[in-house]
Amino acid sequence: MILPDHLWVLAPSDIAALCWLFVAWLGIGHIVQHPPAGRPSVSMLMVNYRHEWMRQFITRDPRIFDSAILTTLREGPTFFASACLIAIGGGMALVGNPEQLRQVAGELELGQAPTVLWQVKVITALFFVANALLKFIWSHRLFGYCAILMASVPNDPADPLAAPRAHQAAEINVTAAKSFNIGLRNIYFALAALGWLVGPLGLAITTTVVLAVTWRREFASHSRTVMLQDLPPVGRI
Fold first, then answer.
1. DSSP 3-state helix, strand, coil percentages of the chain (rounded to 5)?
2. Whole-structure pTM value
3. What are the CB-based long-range contacts (under 8 Å, 24+) for 224-227?
4. How far apart are the first and last CA of the chain?
5. What is the model's pLDDT at position 236?
6. Contact at 8 Å (CB) between 175 and 69?
7. Tens-place pLDDT, residues 177-218
8. Which end of the chain has fewer surrounding CB within 10 Å, N or C?
9. CB atoms within 10 A of CB 41
């Protein structure tokens, strides 16, 4: 167990790098979900396409194609949730065996820091992995809800319930995708947290790299340029 008395092992440089990690993590998450006006992120662009999908779904016959897409979407959270469970198990085993942790650090020539510091570093990475696991599990469940809502959409496009239920399915689909994207960002920053193993400078560098990569994929990628072409209108189904 890590006690407050042990926090002295964190040097000011460690604390500064750790603060940068969490500021970057929270900051990019907020910017992605609340992008500047006139510069939507990829995640926000996909919201429009998901609603457009449900608009087309109402009149599509048969709807097997939509079922196949949703099945594919559920495979992502399933895979990453399984990977997170394995990572958490391995990380907790490492934290629970301080001597092995010290030995691993020595073999990698990562310095002679106190064992508790290595535990803090591993637990920091595990924090992001555990958060990702929760998001992936919830995403998987929400895609299941979406499947049920899609199944409840009447086959007759003229039915007054068709559009409202398709809109409900679209909203649940968007929420599921949001959880999945947050889970992916947690994985990215878990990798950034591993940079702390080589010191505070390593953590600062890996955090900056992950932040830059995440920003580029959301705001400056080729895929975003493609999505902006003939963007479907925003509005209620």
1. 80, 0, 20
2. 0.88
3. 224/41, 224/42, 224/45, 227/42, 227/45, 227/46, 227/49
4. 53
5. 52
6. no
7. 999 999 999 999 999 999 988 889 999 999 999 999 999 999
8. N
9. 22
For residue 37, with 0-12 CB atoms within 10 Å meaning exposed, 13-18 middle and 19 or more buried, which class applies?
Answer: exposed
Question: What CA–CA distance (Å, rounded) separates 187 from 80?
Answer: 9
Q: DSSP character for 1?
A: -
Tokens of 145: 């809800």
Domain ranges of the chain: 12-24+41-228
In our burial notation (b when 16+ CB lie closer than 10 A, e otherwise), range 50-83 reads bbbbbbebbeeeeeeebeeebeebbebbeebbee
Identity of the amino acid at 62: P
Q: What residue has token string 């959880």? A: 179
Burial string for 118-149 (b: 16+ CB within 10 Å, else e) reads bbbbbbbbbbbbbbbbebbbbbbebbeebbeb
Residue owning tokens 């990702």: 132
Structure tokens at 166: 């398709």
Please give the Cα distance from 139 to 120 (Å, whole number). Answer: 29
Residue 35's contacts (CB-CB under 8 Å, 6 or more residues apart) are 41, 44, 218, 219
